[in-house]
Amino acid sequence: MSSEQVPTLEPAPHGAAGSRIADVLRKSILAGEYEPGARIRQEELADRHGASRLPVREALRALEGEGLVTVVANTGAWVSRLSLAECEEMYQIRERIEPLLLRFNVPLLSDESIDKLEALAMQMELSADIEGFITLDRQFHLSMYGVAQTNVLGDTVLRLWNRTHHYRRAFMHVFSRGNDQSVHYEHHLLVSAIRRRDLDEAERVLAGHIRRTRLELARHPEVFSETH
């Protein structure tokens, strides 16, 4: 896999229909079309895609493995949601393991890939659209992690990103109300450290970047009550 590609890291559901349904539903969830805690009705998905229940169940199992969906046996499926305490814990985990994943990848990133990271950082800084920023931000971060082959770490980081994705969107709505440029400053610092192949500095900047989002979210508990 080239470093500019966003890693998928997760197994696809069996069968073309299950893969297609999972792809559409994944994009809808990540785009915010489903709120955390929203019920996902299997019969509606089956009708919409002209499929039977089997590929729908396969798609839901795949998305459950990615952390996007919660399936309760004999009850139904919902878009995964988090409490403030759960989100806090996941961000604490991310602060510790995501810099390690970055350390594995930095020596393998090509100069061309680093140039693309820098271009993404500039695009984010110039973007006035929150949804556009969220898409670019996900591409920026996950592109840094797509080179090194890992057995557990890459999958774990991707699941944590998926579980906290909606709350990063909420954070950006809070962030955009002020004129705080720190997120962009940190992105540029991160690219600079990666370009110098300074592993310790890259880890330090990334950990602080994740920590700042965690602390900001903790200051806005209404983000979590609104999504339950």
Automatic annotation (TrEMBL):
Xref: Gene3D superfamilies: GntR ligand-binding domain-like, Winged helix-like DNA-binding domain superfamily/Winged helix DNA-binding domain
Top-level taxon in the UniProt lineage: Bacteria
The HTH gntR-type domain, residue ranges: 15-82
Keywords linked to the UniProt accession: DNA-binding, Transcription, Transcription regulation
UniProt KW Transcription keyword: yes
GO molecular function: DNA binding; DNA-binding transcription factor activity
PANTHER family found in the cross-reference section: TRANSCRIPTIONAL REGULATOR, GNTR FAMILY (PTHR43537), TRANSCRIPTIONAL REGULATORY PROTEIN (PTHR43537:SF41)
This protein's name: DNA-binding GntR family transcriptional regulator
Annotated organism of origin: Demequina lutea
